[in-house]
User: Fold DUF1080 domain-containing protein from Puia dinghuensis.
Amino acid sequence: MLFLVGGMLAWGVAVVAQSKVVTQSKPVPVSLRPEHWTYRPGAVQFDDSAGVARMKVVDGRGYVVLKNVDFGDGTIEFDDIPTDPSFSQIYFRWQDSLEAECFYFRTARGVGHPYAMTGVQYTPIVKGVMMWDALPQYQTFATYQNQTANHVKIVLSGARMRVWVNNMERPTLEVTRMEGNTTHGTLAFAGEAIVSNLVLKPGQVEGLSPVAGPDETEYDPRYLRHWQVGEPDTMQEAMGARVTGLAKREVDWKPMNAERRGFVNLSRTYGGGRQYRSIWLKTTIHAEAARTVQMRLGFLDDVAVFVNDRLVYVDKNYFGTPIAKVPNGRMSLENATFSIPLQAGDNVLMMRVGNNFYTWGIVARLDDLDGLSIER
Assistant:
């Protein structure tokens, strides 16, 4: 049912009107008619099947965006036939293509493979970057097909999200903290799919707490969480190049703190780009006496690590290439383990981190802190 609020056409869902958010608690069917969506010419077909309205995304390029709707917390339900051979996405809390949240079917992996751990995934879109490769903990398996409809239910409550695919008795995915910058917005679809029975239930969160779940690393003091960061540049210099001369240049160092799970998220600050970029990070490790300590490092996409101007590690983690690190080019502490030689006193740890594909950042943890102190 349509109604007009403050001069805006909407479907009873949370609607922005004159700087106010209006909500309706009853389930609201969303119209699957062309006048209520924005899309590329020829990309979408609208029809009825057995009396059920359907929206068929036939060209997966670009986005199909619901008009004049602002939805924050509540439930989204719909039926979906993900016909795209690669990906089929639903976006929510969508502000634009630069800022949104997303759940998607990775059809090339999941169709016909109900236990494929990469079958579905949650990812935020931050400054235009889909951060899927930094969040392997939010991909999982699901049983779904690309020939028949799959029922999807998504519950959004504050920082949390819970998703069901077909099996409504057991959640498919639990996101303890959504990582996007948005808290409300409209809906959008991308990738070829046939969508029907789209319903919004504003405010209906089924008891899901809005409070983010705990960071499992919060009480682990071994993570290097406090850094200084330079400015990104586009010089694709050899990642193994020595730091010699860096100290002689004027570097505008700024503090940067890690996010949850020790993630130094360069994408949130600097976004993505169409060309290669790299940046310097540095921190200090104080040792009571000379010793060697093991470092575990997750990184995207390439890195050179120096201790007191000495190169100790250099590598690349490029998804879809032979040099992709476990787990399959995603960022994880499984990516690399190597030794850090420390002298007595202060040791300057520097990393040059390059961005070549989607997310950009690191997570670093020492194996122990015996006789060591790090920046707090």
